[in-house]
Amino acid sequence: MITADVVSFSYGRTLVLDGVEVAVAPGQVVGLIGPNGSGKTTLLRTLYAALTPRAGLVALDEKPIGDLRPRELALRLAVVAQEGSGELPLTVADTVLLGRAPHLTTFQRPGRGDHRIAAAALARVGVRHLADRVFAGLSGGEKQRVLIARALAQQADHLLLDEPTNHLDIRYQHEVLALVRRLGVTTVVVLHDLNLAARYCDELVLLDTGRVAATGTPDVVLRPEVLEPVYGIGVQRIATDDGVQLLFRPLDHEEKPA
Ligand SMILES: Nc1ncnc2c1ncn2[C@@H]1O[C@H](COP(=O)(O)OP(=O)(O)OP(=O)(O)O)[C@@H](O)[C@H]1O
C-alpha cells in the first residue's frame, strides 16, 4: 500500500502540490490525471522519494518512504519515469537486466535465473526480438516498452508509471495497460488519455493546479461536470457496450457562431 498524506511540495517559492491525499490499496491501479502542469509528475516523484515533500508524508505500507534504504526501496518499488534511462550504450537485454540489480549483492553478477526473468519481461511487452539491439538506437515506443520490461524484471510489489503509453501505438497502449492490470501489483500511473484511464484504473485522482479536484472510481470522476471546469473543454460521456467513452470538444469553438 502506498499513501501520500497531506503532501505539499514547492519548487523554490512556487507551491506545486498543496495538501494532496492519495491512498493506493494493495493490488489497486490508481490513475493520476489532470491538465498539463497540474502536478502529476511532481506527485509521482514524491511517491518514489525522488522529491521530498515540504509537508506531509509518503509511506509504503505505513513506513515513511524516507526511512527506506535505496536498495530496500528498489525491491519494493519499480518506476518507469518520463525522463527515460539516459543514453548508456547498453543492449536492450542489459538494460532490462539492470532491473535485477536490487536482487543482487554489490559484486554479484546476474545469474541464469536473472537472465530468464529479464527475457520473460521482454517477451511480456513484445520486444524480445530487440534483446541484442543497443537501447539508445530504438524508437520512442520500443524504448518505452523496454523500460516497462525493466520495471517488470525488478519484480517489485509497487509500480509507478509516468505516462507509460507515451510513444506507444494504440495496440500497445492497451496491451501495456492490460498487462499492468494483470500483474496485480499496487500501481500508480499518470495518464493523459481519459478513456484509457476509464478502462484500466480502479480509482482516479484528478489534480488541478496542485490540488486534488476529485477522487474516486472512473465512474465518479469521469463526468462532464467534474472534468469541464478542470480541463476547460466540453466533455460528452457515452455509455457503450464496452464501457464509458468520453468525447471532447473545444468550448471556444462551440461558443463561436459558425
Ligand atoms: N524542476 C522544476 N523546477 C521548477 N518548476 C517545475 C519543475 N518541474 C516542474 N515544475 C513546475 O511544477 C508544475 C507541475 O509540474 P508537473 O511536471 O508535476 O506537472 P504535470 O501535471 O506532470 O504536467 P504534464 O501533464 O505537462 O506532464 C508546473 O507548473 C511546472 O512548470
TrEMBL record:
Residues 1-234 form the ABC transporter domain. SMART domains: AAA (SM00382). Transmembrane segments: none annotated. GO terms for molecular function: ATP binding; ATP hydrolysis activity. Keywords: ATP-binding, Nucleotide-binding, Transport. InterPro entries: AAA+_ATPase, ABC_transporter-like_ATP-bd, ABC_transporter-like_CS, P-loop_NTPase. The keyword Transport applies. Pfam families: ABC_tran (PF00005). This is Iron complex transport system ATP-binding protein. The lineage of its organism: Bacteria, Bacillati, Actinomycetota, Actinomycetes, Pseudonocardiales.
